[in-house]
Amino acid sequence: MWRCVAVTLCSGLLLLAVPAFSDAASEPGWSRNGLETESQSVPYVVEILTPDAKRIGLTESQVGSKVELRLVSAGLVPGDPRVSTDYYLYVRVLVAGDAFSCELQFRRGVEFVGARNTRFSLPGARTWDRLTIGTHGGRAEYVVAVLDELLDQFLNDYQKANPK
Q1: What confidence tens digit (pLDDT) does each residue in 50-74 have?
Q2: What are the CA-CA distances from residue 133 to residues 36, 105, 125, 145 (Å)?
Q3: Which pLDDT score is estimated for 33?
Q4: Count of CB atoms within 10 A of residue 7's CB?
Q5: Nearest partner of 43 among 66, 61, 60, 68, judged by Cα
């Protein structure tokens, strides 16, 4: 019985939320996938690597160079997020022992409209995210190749959202 009540409540909430989403999507500045920008500049941040990453020969410089190379080859301008921007690409590569994870996040300021038109904003919200987890076999090149695959996904989605 409780399960039936929970399903009914969830269905009702979903029906109430869909029209609100549809109305919000028509507002100026609304982003359907969170990747739309008004610029060809893509600021990015590389998280500081772990000691295990450095043990396999992976450096922040390698990661940053890969990101910049891919952005430039896609016709984009790598930017500095310390300069006033509303969005940036966050690059996180974690290595722990034989395991690693690579994650790309596109972060931007978002605004929510609540009950009685109450507005609140969240700076740096993730609007796009991809993650790969695996083992590296002691090879930094493998980790960089996985990062390259994630950059492929990001650039494909980014360019679809921002046609020239």
Answers
A1: 999 999 999 999 999 999 999 999 9
A2: 27, 15, 22, 13
A3: 61
A4: 10
A5: 68
